[in-house]
Amino acid sequence: MEHFFTRLEEIKEIKQTLAKRDWFLGTSGNLSIKVNDHPLLFLVTASGKDKTIHSSSDFLVVDENEQSIWDQTKNPSAEAILHKLIYKNSNAGCVLHVHTIANNLITQSFPTNKEVSFSGSEIIKALGLWEENAEISIPIIPNHAHIPTLGEAFLPHINGNHGAVLIHNHGITVWAETAFEAKKQLEAYEFLFQLTLQSKPTSLSV
Ligand SMILES: CSC[C@@H](O)[C@@H](O)C(=O)COP(=O)(O)O
Ligand SMILES: [Zn+2]
C-alpha cells in the first residue's frame, strides 16, 4: 500500500507541474503510472476532466481491460488502451500524453507513418543518447478516432522500456520506467519541437 501511495503522489505531482505549463488545454492529455505488474494495475486520469484542477478523484485504478476496479462513477481516460498496450509490451512504469501547439505543428510538417528525427542538440542526452551527434527519431502515426485502431497503429512502435509516439495533429505519448524519466523525456521532446520550430529548417530531417 505504501508503494501505491508513493506512485499516486508521483503522478499527482507531474499533473500539477504540467498543468502549470498549460499542457492540458481543453481537458486534453492523460497520465498514468503502474502500481502492480501481475495482474497489471495502473492509475490513470479520469476522462474529460479539467486537468488543471486537482482533486482526490483525478485518478482511477484500472486493470488490464482498462476497467476501473473501485470507482464506477467516473470513466478512465478514453486513451487508456494506449497506456495498457505500453505496460503490456514493455517494462514502462509511467505514460504521459499531452497536446501542445509545438507537438501538433511538428506532426503537420511530416507525413504520417514516417518518423521525424532530431540531432545536434545537447538535450538529446536527456533521452539517453550520450554519443556525439546522436540522432533521435519519433514515429508519427495517423490520428484514428477509433481508439482500438489507434492502438493497432501505436503497438508496433512500443520497442523498449522508454519511447515516444507522435499522433498526427493530436499530441505525443511518452513512456519510461519511472515517472521521473517519463517527465524528463517528455520535456526533452517538447524542447526539441520548440527548438526546431523556432530555428532554421536545417535541424530537421525525415
Ligand atoms: C478534449 S481532448 C481530446 C481527447 O479525446 C483526448 O485526445 C485526450 O487527450 C483527453 O482524453 P481523456 O479521455 O480526458 O483522457
Ligand atoms: Zn489526446
Automatic annotation (TrEMBL):
<feature type="domain" description="Class II aldolase/adducin N-terminal">
    <location>
        <begin position="9"/>
        <end position="197"/>
    </location>
</feature>
<feature type="binding site">
    <location>
        <position position="97"/>
    </location>
    <ligand>
        <name>Zn(2+)</name>
    </ligand>
</feature>
<dbReference type="GO" id="GO:0046570">
    <property type="term" value="F:methylthioribulose 1-phosphate dehydratase activity"/>
</dbReference>
<keyword id="KW-0028">Amino-acid biosynthesis</keyword>
<feature type="binding site">
    <location>
        <position position="99"/>
    </location>
    <ligand>
        <name>Zn(2+)</name>
    </ligand>
</feature>
<protein>
    <recommendedName>
        <fullName>Methylthioribulose-1-phosphate dehydratase</fullName>
        <ecNumber>4.2.1.109</ecNumber>
    </recommendedName>
</protein>
<dbReference type="GO" id="GO:0005737">
    <property type="term" value="C:cytoplasm"/>
</dbReference>
<comment type="similarity">
    <text>Belongs to the aldolase class II family. MtnB subfamily.</text>
</comment>
<keyword id="KW-0456">Lyase</keyword>
<keyword id="KW-0479">Metal-binding</keyword>
<comment type="function">
    <text>Catalyzes the dehydration of methylthioribulose-1-phosphate (MTRu-1-P) into 2,3-diketo-5-methylthiopentyl-1-phosphate (DK-MTP-1-P).</text>
</comment>
<comment type="subunit">
    <text>Homotetramer.</text>
</comment>
<dbReference type="InterPro" id="IPR001303">
    <property type="entry name" value="Aldolase_II/adducin_N"/>
</dbReference>
<comment type="pathway">
    <text>Amino-acid biosynthesis; L-methionine biosynthesis via salvage pathway; L-methionine from S-methyl-5-thio-alpha-D-ribose 1-phosphate: step 2/6.</text>
</comment>
<keyword id="KW-0486">Methionine biosynthesis</keyword>
<dbReference type="Pfam" id="PF00596">
    <property type="entry name" value="Aldolase_II"/>
</dbReference>
<keyword id="KW-0862">Zinc</keyword>
<dbReference type="InterPro" id="IPR017714">
    <property type="entry name" value="MethylthioRu-1-P_deHdtase_MtnB"/>
</dbReference>
<dbReference type="GO" id="GO:0019509">
    <property type="term" value="P:L-methionine salvage from methylthioadenosine"/>
</dbReference>
<dbReference type="InterPro" id="IPR036409">
    <property type="entry name" value="Aldolase_II/adducin_N_sf"/>
</dbReference>
<dbReference type="GO" id="GO:0008270">
    <property type="term" value="F:zinc ion binding"/>
</dbReference>
